[in-house]
Amino acid sequence: MDLATRYMGLTLRNPLLASASPLSNTLDGVKRLADAGVAAIVLYSLFEEQVRQEAERNARLVDAGADSFAESLSYFPAGAQLETEPPRYLNLIERAAGAVQIPVIASLNGATPGGWTSYARAMQDAGAAAIELNIYSLPGDPHTSGRDVEQRHLDILQRVKDTVSVPVAVKLGPHFSSTGEIALRLDRAGADALVLFNRFLQPDVDPEQLTVVPAVDLSRPAEARLARTWISLLRHQVRASLAATTGVEEPADVVKYLLAGADVVMSASALLRHGPQYATVLLDGLTAWMRRKGYASVGELRGLLAVPADSDQAAYERAGYVRALRAANASLGPW
Question: What is 5-307's CATH topology?
């Protein structure tokens, strides 16, 4: 059974990737994921704000010691800046790339133009096989236009592409007014892959304590439908590779994404729920399905259910919507 896959120019042993999660926070976690069979690993995201906060904290500690007495400087390591997050992250990239025989992909969430480019270059130099741009930015200012939000994505991509030579993926959120158009614009701007979709972690409200509380929920299979829809629509419209993420729980979810047209399928929630070894279950299930259906390679089934290239996409989707409503009405019966 041939599971070999190409993703933004990288040759992979299969289409299952481990997306960014706490599992890739350590070298041991990276090794466990690789041993379980994933074809590539996206490391946890490096956030520029976190980097700046650590640098500022270290600077305050140094200043405090200098104001006390010279000997107090010995309490703080020489070259304290080296203890901040970027070196730790870059060290993980370097060690992981040397420890596993699969591509290690860095994930970056910058906040300033200089942050995006300088960290991206450092990640490449540390051995990252590719860089995933985790553009996690919700426009809370109601005066920010949709076009400004889209342009920010394009500007970030172009800056990073001008800085590095490794492939660059863009992880998109699902809340654009025209997802198809921003995908096409990013594709034309040189994105090597589009990752659909980013899940924005939205806070909740505690009505007893009268506080806003963080809420981190793992994804469920029902959430995959939106990403599958857009992957199906974009399969024959973009040059960039398409990565599916969100809602992968069973082998059937991997199969569905591939049939819709995904080049690779990423999982985090299922691996967090069941452990890194669960990647073997997903891959074995994919292989068993292919054998049962008579497919010898992943390439034979990829995109079989994608929207045809020459179809009227809007009409195609509307027809599917109407069919779904009729089927729902028929199954529910009269009220």
Answer: TIM Barrel (3.20.20)
